Task: structure prediction
Amino acid sequence: MITDTLTQHQRYTSFSPRFAAAFTFLNQLPANLPDGRHDIEGDDCFALVQTYLTRPLAQAKFEAHRQYIDIQFLQAGRETLLWSPLDALTRVTEPYAAERDIAFFANPTHWTPIHLTAGQFSIFFPTDGHAPGLECNGSAEVRKIVIKVRA
Result:
């Protein structure tokens, strides 16, 4: 798991050419890009633009992916995400669905909160469990871009 600001994105472009393409997309992101899927490199790298209200911590739902790495970037608003190593997520609540590349887990005993504000991102690898979309000092409307990068 990595958390940083978009101004520091150059530190991560060497991970793969897909990371370079993802950060180029984020740096050129218009404020009015409609919600939904936007292809960057087809199914190897694409953006999911989302607008929503954050939920209370009690509604946290841990998830993990096998095929994709998430770059979760906040374009507007504030949000808390929870992180836990995948090994600590011991009880599956919804088995892995390959067509959606997602599995859900019961909340672990311990997790690390990550507070994001506009201009910040977190990267979650397949070894990272995470619970996104949670309140940070109260509910807020969030505009988030999740870049899915094939691992």
Summary: Helices lie at 17-27. The chain has one domain: 2-150. The chain has a mean pLDDT of 97.
